[in-house]
# Entry
Amino acid sequence: MATPTDEMKSTLNYRRYDEGDGQWDDFSELIFVQDTSHKCPTYIHKTPPCQGSCPSGEDIRGYLAIARGQEKPPEGVAWEEYAFQRSTDANPFPSMMGRVCPAPCQDGCNRNDVEDFVGINSVEQYIGDTALANGYKFEAEADTGKKVAIVGGGPAGMAAAYQLRRMGHAATVFEKDPHLGGMMRYGIPNYRIPRDKLAAEMQRIVDMGVEVCTGVRVGQDVPVADLEKEYDAILWALGCQNGRGLPIDGWEGTSNCISGVAFLKAFNEGRMKVTGKKIICIGGGDTSIDVISVTRRLGYNAAAGNPEDVVADFSINHDQALADAAEPAEATLTSLFTKDKMFAAEHEIHDALHEGCVILDGVMPLEVILGEDGRATGLKVCDCTMDGMKPIPTEGTERVLEVDLIVSAIGQGGDMEGLEDMANDRNLIDADKFYQVPSKPGHFVAGDIIRPHLLTTAIGQASVAVESIDHYMKSEEQAKRPKVDVHHFDLMNKLHEAGLDPEQFDSHDGDLRGTASANFAVHNFEDRSAQEVVGSSDLFLGHFSFTPRVLRGEDVPSADDVLGHFNERLILLSEEQVQAEAKRCMSCGMCFECDNCVIFCPQDAVFRVRKDESTTGRYVNTDYNKCIGCHICSDVCPTGYIQMGLGE
# Structure
């Protein structure tokens, strides 16, 4: 969990060793002869916890190193473009993710054990927006002749199309809605995701040669059998755009009881420009926050009629005149959990309160109160405590809240109409560990239709699914997925990029008893990134000084100014601010060229590699004729890159 801002400490007291740790445990170790030790430095590449916590597996450490100037781009490539290339190896939507991803990477950041996490989202937003401003493009590989049908044009479907084109496979996207984007377009308000930037990130993928068929529903407009005949594989990336109703009396069949998904879609399609006077949303996640925040921005106009009509009837489009004459609306969120345990991001809760929303936490719904016309007029609630995920009502706290519209934001489900043969008993689609649909060869699945989760989760699943599709179309056996399944930094690729490829190995040339003087091997380096995530206990945290996080500005309106306020919320950092924030990255699991090991080695055994032979991951080396195995270099390595090995 990230360190709360008000608990951050400006005085650091890190110590690697406690009192007494400097004493030998027994007499034999006390008389240890150092110069007979077989232990010498080995340079170990591990996955940083930011990347290990990222469901799409972005090389976050890599693009932060590029932003701060430590990892150099190839000649003629700007650092912004190089960082864009590194970022989008895993995720083609840096502009979107930098804005709306809840950032599990920041919760996992080892810098939380120093003072506060690195603002990864803010750097990613800069990378994404700069890429759009400079017109950076994606490149597709030469066509392989293989074709894949992708059902769904949301984050999972479009990420899959992107990865397929990078492999040279043709991709056709079938999307039931008029526009691409899925929940990024229809489920998140425009002040959080600017529509021009969303469209541009989608178009950049289409420009790779992706065919798009919008307004087409597979299973109704196009039979599944036709896709099976025409394409080599099918990826199901339907998403979950059906909201769940409340399991309480009075909900079912009541016209002004709707889902949060339907509410936000009506708004995001531009049809709903005003809403009810008193809105209650039941939830606690980001969707519920979006519902009440949108309500405060839209306001209320009695001339618009019942607020649910525009949600239910797709032919209704509110006139702008209704919005121009709107009055402030009351927006209330009820959550089973207290604010500190709600699933919504902390800053989203804070912003909603600042905008004049009311949050009743520790409250559970009991019953929808109906009027004579059959519409809901109130919601009966009571206080509650939580036993795990089960609410326990508090007797004597029952009351009725007046309401014009009740919105349920307690989860989402799949719309499998016409695809019943694909659905499981939860109305989702089953997947194996390779994201293949069991018992359906050639069918693969990714995203919320497996289990609703984060946008970045859907994108990560799409990447794995595409690898599985590639193996399937090549009739290759599926390899076991690595323990740490992410888009890792590859030292061999970096050496190739820098013109430092190892020489061709010749078994008939020279002494093969060792490789210390040979150039056909990468010496004293081990890549454990597919197996290990480096924790803060492996770092020398004492190297890092207290450095406050560079915060993005936010345009969050007050309760008095929120009506009609649809300006983008997050303010982009400047290049200087981005580079300053990137310098806070501790480069966990990878050398960041601090020279500690060179400076503190008492034998001068650790040395810098010659500049014309140096690149990221190959900055220092060891003279093993001088090394006595004292392990000082390992102790003072801030990033946990050095471990004592090569013997015993």
